[in-house]
Amino acid sequence: MGEREVKITKSVLKFALALAGSPMGIAAITSLGGPVAGLLAKWGTAPLSNVVDLIDGDEITDEAVAEALASKGGRVTPIDLSTFYGE
Amino acid sequence: MRKAVFLLAFAILLSGCTFDGTAKKVLVGANDVQDGAKKAFDDAKAQTEAAGKACGTAARAAVPPVTPSPEACAALGIPIPYDPEKLNKLAGPINATYEAIRAAESVRLAWKKGEAGKSDVIAKVTLGLDAISRLITAANDVGINIDRAPLDEVIRKWESVK
Known about the structure:
The complex is a heterodimer of chains A (87) and B (162).
Chain A: H1 10-19, H2 23-32, H3 37-42, H4 49-56, H5 62-71
Chain B: H1 2-61, H2 70-75, H3 84-112, H4 118-142, H5 149-161
Helix pairs in contact in B: 1-3, 1-4, 1-5, 3-4
């Protein structure tokens, strides 16, 4: 099982940044491996703090909320396990 | 007396602004988290599906052929980056959070029109925060650890104005 290149999109990087939390959390993720482990080890910031900053910031309008909800977020579909390995 | 009425009115106005303003910010912030979770899920799903397909092909081509499994894939040099079954369990909380945020926003707008009560907004926003909490738990189960402390801070601020 050799090294393989792991491509991580900007959005995942953003998410990793957004979710990276405590040093213990980063250590746990690093021990699990996976594509975001390196990122979380590298970017040990607490992302939801952005939400806290947002709350402390200026007032936002109803239009801004509508635009945010229209342009971001969405549903996901699970993996079809019946065809996971092909054929 | 007039001053008292004015101060009371101002206090009510300020209270309303703080409540509505905080509700809006909580919803926008929650939506950002949901958006990030969706993108991370889609990316992890794409990588996992690609690995599964590649592993299946390699397993069938092996001599003798092997039955594909996470262990067999790792042995073939094609590790599956995420447990697909665990990853699928993250889909529900991501979708539930999406719905909860929009439901809360609908009720908030209805409240501003006088068509819903403040308690309805509180209930829906609280449901949205609960959905994010479950999303964090599900993400942790997949191997994406999320620090709850900032979310708890958001909840604390929300609790202080609702």
